[in-house]
Structure prediction request, 381 residues.
Amino acid sequence: MTDAYPAYDATVDAPKHHHPVYDYDSGPPVDRGKFAIWVFLGTEIMFFTGLIGTYIVLRAGSPSWPNPAARLAVDITAFNTFVLICSSATVVAGLFAIQNDDRRKFNLWWGLSILFGAFFVGVQVYEYLHLFHLDMTPNQDLFWSTFYVMTGFHGAHVVIGVVWLAAVYVAALRGKYSSKDFVGLELAGLYWHFVDLVWVLLFTLVYLM
Amino acid sequence: MSDEHPPQFSVKKLWILLLALTAAEVAYGEIGNRTFYENKLLLWGGLLSFAYVKGYYIFQYFMHMKYEGAIVKGNVWFTLPLVVYFMIMLWPDTAANDKLNYGIGRQLDPNDGVVKVHLDQVDSSRNIYIPGEQEDGTRPAPAMPASEYAYLYTADPELVEPEPVADHGADH
Prediction:
């Protein structure tokens, strides 16, 4: 007697995905990564608002405040600000290059961005070491405590940004990104521009005002 | 995946503009600090205007917000009223500072910005000078070198100029 029916194969009916598959896009009409990074950047805005707001209250409430130009090397930091703005421009240039499938230009611009970012961190470390050598430590007064808190947290963001830029750079060198898929680069770029934007404000508030 | 390329703009032009604005801002700050340092409205207003314009271009072009749709824009703009709310909530601390017995930052010397209060006599939770009261109700002079005496801006004359004690500096 032969089998009238073939043996049941459970894999035939097994779902191919763990998640339900719809015949329509159930998410918002925007890339999920971009949506997520902007939600994250919204929280970052509030984070730096807290720091800057506290700085304004402490400064405005103080009977006196030293002139930053007398305590800080404004010229060096102004050059560092130039460098950070340059890095933002090279990130955009790199993104445009990958959108045009120009890998040679992408490698150049994105690599420069990482170098500029690392340079910025290096100058900030040098500045901190120099200030510490002069006993300009955070416990000296409100000027220094607010200075270190704001520039320190921003510096940590720059370090994270450099690592992020480097990580996507390695992935790009391995051929992950192209003119059809560059969202990963775009997200890293958005974070980097945000760090640049915050520094524009901090430089004005802490070093110039 | 990004199937449609967002519009591209001239990075070079924006880069030059931002560098020029930064140079102008630094020059304005340098000149302002030397010539019209006391006119805070002019000095700070000008500097913040430079920062705003630079931030605007970075936000709109580098961060591509100009070309985003309502969902991404809505994600960011909701923070604006929160920022305003936060500042309004903080404002009384600044506005009422002169009504506090020991306002914020009262340990700063207005001449050189150096801390004159010894740290172990500062209530760190309130950032104020606590001289300590003895059983007979008198306040002793702080046990620190005369050069580090508290320099306070307060209506209480006992706290303004504590009597120096000659040998206490050596114990410290």
